[in-house]
Amino acid sequence: xxxxxxxxxxRSEPRASCQRDGDGDSRHEExxxxxxPEDIWRHIHSLMPMDAAARAACLSRTxxxxxxxxxxxxxxxxxxxxxxxxEKHFRCRVDSIPRNHSGIGLxxxxxxxxxxxxxxxxxxxxxxxxxxxxxxxxxxxxxEEYNFPCSVLSDxxxxxxxxxxxxxxxxxxxxxxxxxxxLTRLSLCYVRITGEELECLLSNSLALEHLTFKREYISxxxx
Length: 223
Fold this sequence. Notes:
Blueprint: H1 2-10, H2 15-19, H3 26-32, H4 38-46, H5 50-59, H6 61-67, E1 72-75, H7 77-80, H8 87-100, E2 108-112, H9 120-130, E3 137-141, E4 147-148, H10 155-160, E5 163-171, E6 185-192, H11 195-203, E7 210-214, E8 219-222
Parallel strand pairs: 1-2, 2-3, 3-5, 4-5, 5-6, 6-7
Antiparallel strand pairs: 7-8
């Protein structure tokens, strides 16, 4: 279904006509995108891969509105940029995506910045913008020097997040973190965390069903 939508967009050649989508010209709307209820367009948009969904949002006001509620963000150099793209261009793209997303409707966030320390000054603001109440899956590939901010796990986030996967970072949960009421899957791979902090995290995860913990010479998995 996603491919069909993208092909429909590709048939429109002049950029000006793309920008006029929804400008009140009913004849134009019939030839460009047929009228459908907004929730149907939003569902169609949600079925597209993220790169195709982002391109569609650039071409159509209809998809731009639904992009702000797109349910999955996969922020990875391999999916966002070519091998020749420099770090500054990648940072600008990553910076724009969470800021243009309302946070409403976001269910899954995957962020891969493994060994990219130059992005750390921006990482806290990216997480604050993207990790909002209602999110269900959070997967982060980072670096041990980065301290994952517990403030990201606000009351609303702790109520909704079901899966938390942290790879290569430092995580310092304290007793004031609060209950992770919906968390059923926890994966900590090469994460700097003390035994006391891990005990605190587990004691606040009452619904936990699956646990994966990996360090240099330790590999534990429970379910």
